[in-house]
Amino acid sequence: MSGSRRFYDDLAATYHLIFGDWDASIARQASALSPLLAPGSRVLDCACGIGTQALGLAALGHPVTGSDLSPVAVARAAREAAARSLALPVVAADMRALPFAAGSFDVVLAADNAVPHLLTAADVGAAAREMRRVLRPGGRLVLSTRDYDALRRDRPLSTPPQRNADGTVTFQLWTWNADGTHYDLEHFQVEPRGGGWTTSVRRASYWAITRAELGGLLVDAGFTDVRWPDTDFFQPVISAASG
């Protein structure tokens, strides 16, 4: 996942520019995820990035801990939490080797298509086993991914350009492998500056993992009650019990 770390280390300072209104997105995503969590749940956001989900859930009263492969991203998440007077302890960590004691959390969260950065079944399985280990008995796993069942069928080559309030434009180019199971992503961020434009390009790779593939790997890792609940979250969500 070294490429993923470089991607998010580089993106951390301007990640919020992906959103038309980052603060509104923080609140909206937390509101969509909150019905899946019992009040006061101890949450580990193990792909917290700069805090988009973690900040919102902390603001709703959940004790949240953040971890992420990118130390630059988690440092920013900590600063954003402090600026909002929120408690958000953070640590840089690989989700395949979480630095927490067994049974530490009621909920483990990995949202916004984080798990598909793991490119093999062995890696997803390793992460799933770690997530289950740090959950208390009866705890819940909550993940979100892109709708890869549809995307593997259609194999889009790009995303539409999106322009936020300060004029920054973002879009992605996707290059699929021959069998349509994986793709390389180029993320373009075009910012207005000095009467012209400054363009940044970042690259990462993804496994376009289907619902059946992901659900099966969670079962193999010992999870039960695997389901895809209807939510208002912007991506499909899968939830499972730690057993």
What would you note in describing this structure?
It is built from 7 helices and 11 strands. It has 243 residues and is α/β, with parallel strands linked by helices. It folds into 2 domains: 180 residues, Vaccinia Virus protein VP39 (Rossmann fold, 3-Layer(aba) Sandwich), CATH 3.40.50; 57 residues, N-terminal domain of TfIIb, CATH 2.20.25. A hairpin with a 5-residue loop joins strand 7 and strand 8. The relative contact order is 0.16. Keywords: Methyltransferase, Transferase. This is Methyltransferase domain-containing protein.
Quick tags:
243 residues; alpha/beta; Rossmann fold; N-terminal domain of TfIIb; 7-stranded mixed beta sheet; 4-stranded antiparallel beta sheet
**Helix/strand/pairing class, anyone?**
alpha/beta
CATH architecture of the largest domain: 3-Layer(aba) Sandwich
Radius of gyration, CA atoms, in whole angstroms: 17 Å
CATH class of the largest domain: Alpha Beta
Describe this structure in a few short sentences:
Keywords: Methyltransferase, Transferase. The protein is of the alpha/beta class and 243 residues long.
